[in-house]
Amino acid sequence: MSVTGGRIQQTGGASSSSHTERKRANTNSQPSNGHEQLAGNGCDHQGPNQEHRSQRVDGSKTKALPTPIPDPPILYTKLFINNDWHESCSGRKIPVYNPTTGELLCEVEEADSEDVDEAVRSARAAFQMGSPWRSMDASDRGRLLNRLADLVERDRLLLATLEALDCGKVFLMAYFVDLMATIKTLRYYGGWADKIHGKTIPVDGEYFTYTRHEPIGVCGQIIPWNFPVMMFVWKIAPALCCGNTVVIKPAEQTPLSALHMAALIKEAGFPPGVVNVVPGYGETAGCAISHHMDIDKVAFTGSTDVGKLIQKAAGESNLKRVTLELGGKNPNIVFADCDLEYAVEQAHSGLFFNQGQCCLAGSRVFVEEPVYEEFVRLSVERAKSKVLGNPLLPGVDQGPQIDQKQFDKIMELIESGKREGATLECGGSMWGQQGLFIQPTVFSNVTDDMLIAKEEIFGPVQQIMCFRSISEVIQRANATHYGLVAGVFTNDINKALTVSSALQAGIVWVNCYNAMSAQCPFGGFKMSGNGRELGKYALQEYTEVKAVTIKISQKNS
Amino acid sequence: MSVTGGRIQQTGGASSSSHTERKRANTNSQPSNGHEQQAGNGCDHQGPNQEHRSQRVDGSKTKALPTPIPDPPILYTKLFINNDWHESCSGRKIPVYNPTTGELLCEVEEADSEDVDEAVRSARAAFQMGSPWRSMDASDRGRLLNRLADLVERDRLLLATLEALDCGKVFLMAYFVDLMATIKTLRYYGGWADKIHGKTIPVDGEYFTYTRHEPIGVCGQIIPWNFPVMMFVWKIAPALCCGNTVVIKPAEQTPLSALHMAALIKEAGFPPGVVNVVPGYGETAGCAISHHMDIDKVAFTGSTDVGKLIQKAAGESNLKRVTLELGGKNPNIVFADCDLEHAVEQAHSGLFFNQGQCCLAGSRVFVEEPVYEEFVRLSVERAKSKVLGNPLLPGVDQGPQIDQKQFDKIMELIESGKREGATLECGGSMWGQQGLFIQPTVFSNVTDDMLIAKEEIFGPVQQIMCFRSISEVIQRANATHYGLAAGVFTNDINKALTVSSALQAGIVWVNCYNAMSAQCPFGGFKMSGNGRELGKYALQEYTEVKAVTIKISQKNS
């Protein structure tokens, strides 16, 4: 069975002709090691590092790759509260920029604490006993989520285009990864809605005991700018599946897809107040959510520093439940016995995916000594093959960073790497005349005490370290406050199981990286957060367990 | 089948002869409504409100009730770290008093932050990869917990005596409730140890995914003074069952049973460092635990105010996982159609159990109007029947409050009830010449805005309110920041299911109160805490989910 769809990297490189050094490799840059060939089965997968095939129409023909909608209309720029569009109380607006060009896309109403209060009142009313939402069959909640998935499929091109415009994402990545994950996550939790089971429990004594897994109530959700629509759905889907109501704040940089989703939520038929979308800044709207006395649960994805503030705010206010998905400085461990070219490719995309703007980024690549130099050489070759440019154009596989602040932070960390003595193998500078592009950068001879080995960079900067023994690499991989994900490349089952058990990380990938799936729980150990998203595990983060014990006259086993 | 064991209240009232008004009713004070009679099956149950029968030797004979050990030796007064006894770094000691007499029982080493550091180092070493504890079979962890249960059974009289001396608990209550729960909880989690299952997950793509539910690491546990040995085991048993290591701080008022447990832990054969016991004060040792950078999880039982500090401390330090069991102002709703005498008795013990020093105390009794006056009359009669005195003496069923601070707070709240216009039906003053006794107190005509209807009193003070409709009582019952437990008395299945679903509480008891069991999850909604203890649910509070995804060459369903 052969892969019939074209790979993204095979769609040409016309837009990158000004950047000749990267042109060649992009047209056929991925090593072929047989894994993908065998795996081709015509289905789309949502992992960012999986094959992005177009769907086959029949056994031999393929559809053309999707293309962005030219100059898409930006229909929704207001606050979405109680299924209506509102202007902000303050009258303030957020300017929304295209990071590729720096141009203003539109202005969006800016929510502050008064608007958050209004959204919470709406969400609280929708959660009242006897409301349409509280008295709805769980299976109907599932139908609504599936209907929302249908609408996202309908508007998939538009949403992917908005992501590329607003976030600087490579359009095809947005289409095949972000939107695929969005749709699959909605359907996955649509299926769970009427399968959230309590237990009956054989307690001691003459009692009958059962548990109900009840919705928690009003959930405040704060999401980042790196996967705007996917994060939106990772947050709302389990919350709604369990019967909660939501006040969600998209990042100020990337509110457009969230507002479009709001319109789809209304169109799908969710009752008013069930989902409220309040674009705003962290220090104002985010702070109002995390300190709110009538929000029962807060879920946050973002930096560890802000995560700590969210946790504190829960203690300072009403002890709302807190789940956090925070930063990572993720180890990716490559043993000498592995399929090296494959590992190079996985480590490359495991870091450079989404311009390196991933909490999952494998930013500490530990390579076993015998293959270290070869690994570095191939990684540099691969990094140099990347095509930078306007992410809406075909053939481009790296867009701009999200904003000046992130850009400056990344450049500073690159400078620190040079200063502290790491070997700059390629990149290391900005790219192009406009926008916020950074050359794909590879550092070798990185030691664990360097800033670039300790700080989350959130940019296209790969650190490659050398290791000699399994115990050494376990110790070094774990020597961080973070614990989000990790990768291991080896064909030795003992190494794979020993290392995957020993790594302090919420996800360990063996012979793969970034292999995400709606069914698989996601979340960190240590200061990478707490709680899990996705999978069945997320349901327990959105339910409150109530035990009901009823006196009976006699036990009857 | 008849109940063959004697009830506690039937064992006489000799010690209370100085307190004549309460003597009569105690000898046969519980109404008999047939429920308990039918339920008698010879087994001990751990709920505080269940029948406390002595175990039958055969079908007709009964054993005598247990009696306290006279002048029990206090063998353990030092810090327990790494299976050794240590003096505190500061040299300071905690004076430990008998609240019944005010006399000094002993002095115990006082842990401060340096000692906590030492305990954490010991717990961390015990948690290292390759340690005896980390490489032990899960079934052997279960055996150790069962062996510890055996040792607690062996020392049950001594431990119950220590509880009565140190905490002022009625000895038979300590023996039958606290120690029974302690033993059952150990055995319950002993059984779970090798049944903590991860999942295999059908993810999209050519991958094999499984989850491991790994121990979190070093758990800091901070427990209160009201159920010293039971809380100790509620905390350590699930933690150890899942493979964690523990640094536990008993309350400064009641360290004696925890230190005896430490000796039993060593005797049972737990490896050094797995459990470390550090008596100390909240502001010093407790603060050190909650802020510690090398403690991975903190579990706290205590007041909501301190719970908020614990939550904040996690945000200020290392984002350790937090579970909290906090205060309650628990509604107990009595409908007119219920078995009124049974409801009176359950509401009585649901409030007065353990001198009212329970987070579960049903301190807002809502009674439906048609039976309100009768309910009040019977409740007052029942309260007046209580026998106060030395909790080591037979026949006594109410001991002293724990300390002067609590005593003063309760007396102040009683004064506020009088001042705010509630009707003082009985009690309302201190009792006796020495010690910290408070008369069983009943207020009727309590309105929701009174302090005694809003604040957790943690003393023998019962508030009885009147209600007229089901929607009214649901609204009033939920109109609090707390949400721990609730009771409902009715024989109408629609009322029972409507109200139990609508109440915002982690446990709802129908036609019973305080019916606890190791199998049943326990924990609060809203500001009564987060997370669950007991039952299978507690396991998820002591495990960190790791998803491992392995690349495979082809899917094979």
UniProtKB/TrEMBL annotation, chain A:
Enzyme superclass (EC): oxidoreductase
Signal peptide: none
PROSITE patterns noted in UniProt: ALDEHYDE_DEHYDR_CYS, ALDEHYDE_DEHYDR_GLU
Coiled-coil ranges from the UniProt annotation: none
Biased composition annotated in UniProt, kind: Polar residues: 1-18, 26-35
Keywords: NAD, Oxidoreductase
InterPro entries: Ald_DH/histidinol_DH (IPR016161), Ald_DH_C (IPR016163), Ald_DH_CS_CYS (IPR016160), Ald_DH_CS_GLU (IPR029510), Ald_DH_N (IPR016162), Aldehyde_DH_dom (IPR015590)
EC number: 1.2.1.3
SUPFAM superfamilies, sorted: ALDH-like
Active-site residues, as the UniProt record annotates them: E325
CDD domains with a match to the protein in the record: ALDH_F1AB_F2_RALDH1 (cd07141)
Superkingdom as given in the UniProt entry: Eukaryota
Pfam name, any one: Aldedh
Bias-annotated ranges (Basic and acidic residues): 50-61
Gene Ontology terms for molecular function: aldehyde dehydrogenase (NAD+) activity
Region spans: Disordered: 1-70
Residue stretches making up the Aldehyde dehydrogenase domain: 85-548
PANTHER family registered for this protein in UniProt: ALDEHYDE DEHYDROGENASE-RELATED
Family to which the UniProt record says this protein belongs: Belongs to the aldehyde dehydrogenase family.
Record-given protein name: aldehyde dehydrogenase (NAD(+))
Organism the protein comes from: Acanthochromis polyacanthus (spiny chromis)
